[in-house]
Amino acid sequence: MAQQITPPDELWWLTFNQFLIGALVLGTFVSIVFAYFAIRYWEKKVKPNEAEVVLGPGRVAPGTSKIGWTRYTLVVTGIIVTLLILATFPRTDYVEASPPETDLVIWVTAFQFGWEFEYPNGKKVVNTLVLPTDTVVEFKVVSRDVFHAFGIPEIKGAKIDAIPGILNSLWVKTPSEPGELNVVCYELCGVGHSLMVGKIKVVPPDEFQAFLQST
Amino acid sequence: MSSLRSWILRWLTTTNHKDIGILYMVTAMYFFLVAGTLALLFRVQLAMPESNFLSGKAFNQAVTVHGLVMLLWFLSPIQFGLANYFVPLQIGARDLAFPRLNALSYWLYLFSGLLLIVSFFVPGGAVDGGWTLYAPLNTAAFSPSKGFDLAVLAIVMLSAAITLGTVNFMVTIAKMRAPGMTWDKVPMFTWSILFTILMMLLAFPALAAAGLLLLLDRLLGTTFFLSVEGGALLWDHLFWFFGHPEVYILLFPSLGMLADIISSFTGRPLYAKRFVLVAFMAATVLSYIVWVHHMFITGTSLLVRKIFSVTTALISIPFEMATLALILTLYKGRIRYTSPMLFAIVSIPLFIIGGATGVFNAAIILDRAFRGTYWVVAHFHYIMAGTALFAVIAGLYYWFPKMTGRMISEKLAKIQLILAVIGINLLYFPQFLLIDMPRRVFRYDYAPEWITLNQLSTVGAFIFAASFVVALIALIHGMLRGRPSGDNPWGAWGLEWLTRSPPPPHNFDGQPVVTRDGRILIVPEKTLEEQGVDKVISGEAKVSVTGVMTPNGTAGHQSPSHAHGHAHGHHGSMEPMMLALGMFVAFVAMPLGNMALMALGALVAFASIAKWVLDEYRGRFSEPEPRYREEFPFVGIDKFKVGLWTFIAGEGFLFGSLVGAYIFIRTRSPAWTPGIELHDVAIGLFNTVVLFTAALAMGLAYYNARVGNVGLQRASLAFALALGLLFMFTKAYEWSKFAAEGYGLTSTMEAQLYYTLTGAHAAHVLVGVLASLYALARSLRRPYGPQDARTLLYIGIYWGIVDIVWTFIFPMFYLI
Fold it and tell me: Are A116 and A148 in contact (CB under 8 A)?
């Protein structure tokens, strides 16, 4: 059932926090080394025997230097970063694939300047979508005119490009509490781009069923 | 009055690399003021969620022009202004390899920028599609504004300027280094410019190709970016194939400056320089295979995206290495915190923030949230307006004494630095927290939680802007009132500090030589003749040296009489400016449909080219190559050949991009009529033979020039010319026949591609025809002999390349 399915935005936050910790640890370490050197070797602090000034007027920097193996430590941070990226791939597969089970498919057509939503029963609404709580929803997103991007700012990672001639899909799990979400265009699509804001009303399932049957 | 006239005339006609460097910098600063003002306008708009300060259209125009100008008309040009001035000085050359071409690059750059500025005042107003100009919003169907056309023309014109510039710098750095300046000893700034032009050479043709296809769409009604087969994704691929190397194009010169400046003020060579150079080389190559990370949510196959996600992670490695190397350069140094050093140092933490957040973007799963939001804006502004710009300021202040002979006020520079550091962080850090706010919206009334962050950002923008007001005051104050600097006020290393401030037109009072152990000697040419250059480099020769540092840190000079021992071809020339001006007039008139003005502009442009060719014909601007130089691995290959091959590499990528567009469209077309059913293979084959024979005839002309057979030389040239013309006539016949069958330019996708690619090829054939015409005229008046036969060889090589392009086009359109 939908309750057991991990929502994509949860995985987004998990990944983001891992990256944030990695960036903070590495960034802080590098910054401390940097600040230490920048102060330690300031001409007003450094003792004459500590500084080895080898480059000055009338010279060019030599191409070779006797550094040895320590230079290979330069790639360490790069390797960490690459591993960090590779580690995200299983989660990427999960959120990029179709949802484990789909409760509801909504067709979204972006146009200058608004959103048309179509329910499985053929019911169409413009700019205001009603969805049930705690439901896995798959959006099938197309565009009628130019390049738009369909996104829900309140749900992290809920974003996909709406491109003429291309069918893209995206799935989310709606919140368990009723409420209101925004639908925003994330690609400059013309003079009305800023006004291309739709709403998603998240309502209890019975209320949703009533809405779906109404004309 | 006449002195004012000659002053103006000097700047209009100069071909000296230092003058042109100054022109670049001043022009770039003007564009910076324009783009910066636009940024302030939209920051004011965004301070309130429902402000009416700007209309939606004005807002879109402001963000679009801001982006385009900052990247293409400010940041790169100001870096290349410094490169124009200091690359020849750093490597001990007297000028760039092709001074007049350099002037042309500048004037094309200036007028292309003006084209963009003018676009505000034409019907429909300036371009408003975002700096990435996404399709199909960029087509006339959705954006009919004439200003949009002008912007695309400006981009194509700028691409031409940049391609010429790459040729110039390539040849200069490859072939004009002072004796002893081996690749190992080349300073990092010059190295970074070399890597930058390698990226420019291959990236800008893709932009030019995208621009040309877009112009055809907008002006002649083709549908490359409107159709489903091409459309949004074709633009995305072409644009980002340019766009991602462009990011490093903007960053590399700054990293190079940082390395040289930090070396100067610590007294330490860059840590692990060779290792960093290998890293730069890797980044240059990798920069071509990361572009899809801009398209993570376009629906591209997951496997492709994963590959590009990994390449993106990999390309972070060279930049992390560069950052760490810069930091480790401080180790065991004696750091002097002068104003250039302070700006250089501050740019490092900004790079750490911008770089670290970039890693987040490389993860496909995370990018889904970042895409199109202020997080991305914050990320790249930390790198562009942070690292890259701070390094440029450091570079400007570092070299200011060399350019003017005066010092910048340290007090003003420090006030500027404090304002800039507070301003940039207040401006962009809140934008990381605006992680859900879409870019390029002028209203956000549905999200009240974004208001405070936007207001902080706006306040930051004004503080940041204030820092540049101080910078302007500092620059003007330094120029007028700054205290005299002497030749080497910083006690800096490198060749540029071993000449006067400002340097004389010929740069050095003697021939700079770098000894094997890294000392720089400015040696009279006579000494080199007597002692031999190898002995001077090895340090065995007894040299009565100049350019040794006196105790107070100024270079000793030899008497100026030696200054003109080396004939320096320092000529003024009006043609580069007139050519660019003519193009400007024609391009402004083109979208407006003003035929008379277009003809006038074209006339001026062609007259300038004719005058240019006439000068070549008379040998007026022949610039002798330096006698003593380091030119590995191009020993014995003359500069025109190196230049030609560099240019051809760019041309290759232009056609490569067009062929890429063909493949892209064709693979996405549900039905496709094979060329063999549309075109007459016999005519195609005939033209193939004609084209190949033309190249052969040029080869024969070259051979006969070498062996001194004037009659056959002229006959071969006439034959080549006739074949070129025959090709053009056959092509014209073929086109008219195809059009008569109902296949006009705008009919089918097959026809659109056919006309576009064969048209681009025919334009190159036309250039070949004109070159052959020139060679024939020259041969009739003054036959080519063994000493100048190479001109014919180069025209022959060009014909050969035109043939190679045809060998791709022929099967694409006639067979399959």
Answer: no
